[in-house]
C-alpha cells in the first residue's frame, strides 16, 4: 500500500519537474521563467522526497529528507531573489 | 564483464577526448582549464567503473580512494592554474 | 533488480554526461560553459551514487561541482572577454583534429574494454577487504585512505599545500563583494553554523559510514565561500598567523603520528593494534582544518591582507604589503 502511494508521489513529483522544465523553455522572459522554476521544481522535489521517504520506511531517513527539502527551498528562494534583483538592477527584463 | 562497465567506461573515454579537444581548440586560459577539468571527470569515471562490481557487491575501495584524492588534487591544481592565468593577464602579454 | 534492468537508465545517464561535457566545452559563452560544468559535476555525483560510491558522490558534489564551480565563477569576474572568439583553427586542420580525437577515443576505448575483459591481474580489493576489521574503521574507503594507503594521503595533503602556496605567492586576494542584503545575509547567517555542524558530523561519521575528512573540509570551505559572498572579504578565516598553522596542521599531525608510532617492530605510519581508530580520527580532524583553509584561500585567490611576505613583487600595483 505504501509502495503504491510512494510511486504516485514520485510520479507527481516528476510531473512538476517536467512542468518546470517546459516553463523554462517556453516562457517569454526571465522573471516568469524564474517563477516557474522555483515554484514547480521545489514542489516536485518535495513530492519526490516524500515518495522516497515512504520507500525508505524509517523515520530518521524521512526527517533527513525533510531537512534536505527545506534547505533546497531556502537556497532556491534566495537564489531566485538574487537573480531577479540583479536583473532589475541591470534593467533587463529578458 | 558487466554492461555498466562498457557503458560508463566508454563514457569516461568520451569525456576525456571531449576535454582534450577543448584544450587543443580554445585559446583562452579559462576555457582550457575548464576543458582540462572535463578531462579529469572522464578519467575519474574510468577509475570508478573499474572499481564497480555490480549492484550486489561492494565496490573495490582502492580505486575509489584514489579518485577521492584525485578530486581534491584536481581542484587545487585548478585553483593554481586560475591564479597563474590571472597573474598573466594582469601582467600583460610577455 | 539486477544490473540488466538498469541499462536504459545508465545509457540515459551516460548520454547526459557526454552531452553536458560537450556543451560545456563547446560553448562560446564562458559563463554558460561554467554553469554547464557545474551541472556536469552534479550529474557526475549522481553517477558515483549509481556506481555505489557514496563517499565520492559527496566529495564530487561539494568539491568537484561546488568549489570548482565557485573558483571558475570567481575567475570569470576578472575575465575581460567572457565570450570566446572563433576558433583559430579552421577548415582542413579542424577536420584533422576531429579525426585525431575520434581515433584516439576509439583506440583508448578499445584498450580499456580489452583490459577490463581480460582482467586476470592482481586486484587489491580482496586483500583490503580482509584487513578492514583490523584497520580501526569500518568504512572501506576511509580504511584505504588513512590506513592502508596513508602515505599517499600524506603526499596528497602536501600537493594541496603546494598548490595553495603557489596561489598565495602569486599575488594578493581578489577584491571582496559588497555587503549582502537581507536575503543573502540571512541565508549566510543561518547556513554557516549548519555547515560547520555538518562538517563535524561528516568527520565523525566517516569512520563507519560514507564521509570523512575531505567531505568535512569541503563543507567548511563552502561556509567560507558563503561568508565571502555575503560580504566578508576574509571569508571568516582567522588572522594570517593562525592561518599558517592551520594550513600545515594536517601534514604536521600526520607526520608526528607517523613518526611517533615507529617502534622496533613497526614502520613509519604503521599504527599499533587498537590505536588505529583514534589515530585516524586525530589525523582526519587536522586534515579537515587544513583542507578547509586551503580551499578557502584558493577561492579568495591570493594572499589575505596582513599576510607578510619576504620580498616585494615589482610588477604588482601598489597595495599594502608587509616587509
Note down, in words, how this protein is organized.
The complex is a heterotrimer of chains A (94), B (94) and C (323). By secondary structure, chain A is mainly alpha-helical. Chain A is built from three helices and no strands. Chain A is elongated, with a radius of gyration of 16 Å. By secondary structure, chain B is mainly α. Helices cover 82% and strands 0% of the residues of chain B. Chain B contains three helices and no strands. The longest helix of chain B has 31 residues. Chain C has 323 residues and is an all-alpha fold. Chain C has two domains: 85 residues, no CATH class; 170 residues, no CATH class. In chain C, helix 1 packs antiparallel against helix 2 and helix 8 runs antiparallel to helix 9. The longest helix of chain C has 26 residues. Chains in contact: A-C, B-C. At the B-C interface, helix 1, helix 2 and helix 3 of B face helix 1, helix 2, helix 3, helix 4 and helix 5 of C.
Question: Which spans of chain C have pLDDT < 50 for at least 5 consecutive residues?
Answer: 318-323
Tell how many strands the DSSP assignment of chain B holds: 0
Mind telling me which CATH architecture of chain B this is? Orthogonal Bundle
Radius of gyration of chain C: 23 Å
Give the percentage of residues in beta strands of chain C.
under 5%
Structural class of chain B: mainly alpha
Number of helices of chain C: 11
Distance from first to last alpha carbon of chain B: 53 Å
Shape of chain B: elongated
Tally of strands of chain C? 0
Following the backbone from N to C, one meets helices and strands of chain B in this order, namely HHH
Terminal CA distance of chain C reads 66 Å
Compute the average pLDDT of chain C: 89
How many structural domains does the protein architecture of chain C include?
2
Could you state the oligomeric state of the chains shown? heterotrimer
What's the number of helices of chain B? 3
